[in-house]
Design brief:
Stress-Dev_Protein, ten-stranded mixed beta sheet, Split_barrel_FMN-bd, 4 helices, alpha+beta, Pnp Oxidase, Chain A, YdaG_split_barrel_FMN-bd, globular
Length: 169
């Protein structure tokens, strides 16, 4: 894999592409204790500034943990395309109706009896501090075929089919 660090709008574009493609991440809290608390979370949106938005219940453990320590680690995996993303950042909880209305998804009705008017609805925004990505440009199938061909023929493959690096938003 080659290294390509991205900055500003180019980094936000890659962050948005990879996170929205995977859509689900492992959302880790209580980073100062081991093992970290982790749970799958569905991404609502990665906005134009690189913030990641989630819907959560006010009585969830993650909300309590964020109130104590807002450092979080997110791991996105899109195995079908061999794309991976690790995000360390800060989480902020919103309870105002405007933010809930803006970020609401009908998919969330499954978790909230009263829909977006449920008093337990909160919105979590994660602002990335450090982000690292792995992106196999050719995709999983082509990378696997290339690897197998190299193993059979003994000819070293060109490692340029993938790229990894820091995203500075």
């Amino acid at each position: 894999m080659s290294t390509e660090n991205l900055h500003s709008q180019e980094a936000v574009k890659k962050l948005k592409e990879l996170s929205e493609s995977a859509r689900t991440c492992m959302f880790c809290t209580e980073l100062s204790t081991l093992p970290n608390n982790a749970r799958p979370m569905s991404l609502q949106e990665c906005d134009q500034e690189g913030n990641l938005w989630f819907i959560s219940s006010s009585d969830s453990n993650k909300n309590f943990e964020i109130k104590e320590d807002n450092r979080v680690q997110l791991y996105f995996m899109n195995n079908g395309s061999s794309e991976y993303l690790s995000i360390f950042g800060k989480a902020y909880i919103y309870t105002d109706k405007n933010t809930i209305e803006d970020k609401w998804s009908s998919f969330a009705n499954a978790w909230f009896e009263e829909g977006k008017d449920d008093p337990k609805v909160t919105i979590i925004r994660v602002t990335p501090d450090e982000t690292y990505y792995w992106d196999t440009k050719a995709g999983k199938f082509v990378s696997m075929v290339t690897f197998i061909a190299s193993a059979v023929t003994g000819i070293k493959t060109d490692n340029s089919d993938g790229v990894e690096g820091n995203l500075t938003v």
